[in-house]
Amino acid sequence: MYNIPDLIVMETHIYYLFIMALPVACIAWTVTKEEIFREAREFCVDRSKNCDKLVKRKFFYVFTCEYCFSHYITLILLSITNFKLLYSDWRGYLIAFFAIVWIANVYMSLYNIIRIDLKKEKIKVAKEESELKKD
């Protein structure tokens, strides 16, 4: 079983996992969904559909898919931080890699749900306001 210091270290690793997934989710979402990168994303979408070589199409597709892009952001983050989860060798990197990607994608899914709900609410309010103006 685990002793108390091991549990404290594991608890710290879990906190780090959830914190490290935040910048991954933020960067992946911003690059693949937000208006600031729209032109670059449209270029990548075009190239991902119209390149002659499969490797080129897949390279450009990465910049259009938040799930795919989050893997590359996680690789960069792990190389910068040397974060490992559960194990202190290569297995720790592997587990951390997939755990961060998964948590980041949960964050992005929740964010997307919230955005959809807010958009629905805005549409509802605008519709009610226009109906009030007609009366």
Structure description:
- The chain has 135 residues and is mainly α.
- It has one domain.
- It is built from five helices and no strands.
- The longest helix is centred in the C-terminal third of the chain and has 45 residues.
Q: What keyword list fits this structure?
A:
135 residues; single chain; mainly alpha; 5 helices
Question: Would you spell out the secondary-structure blueprint of this structure?
Answer:
Layout: H1 4-33, H2 38-50, H3 54-61, H4 66-81, H5 90-134
Helix content: over 70%
Helix-strand makeup class: mainly alpha
* Most strands sheet: none
Question: If you average the pLDDT, what whole number results?
Answer: 89
Radius of gyration: 20 Å
Strand percent estimate: under 5%
Short description:
By secondary structure, the chain is an all-alpha fold. The chain has one domain (4-134).
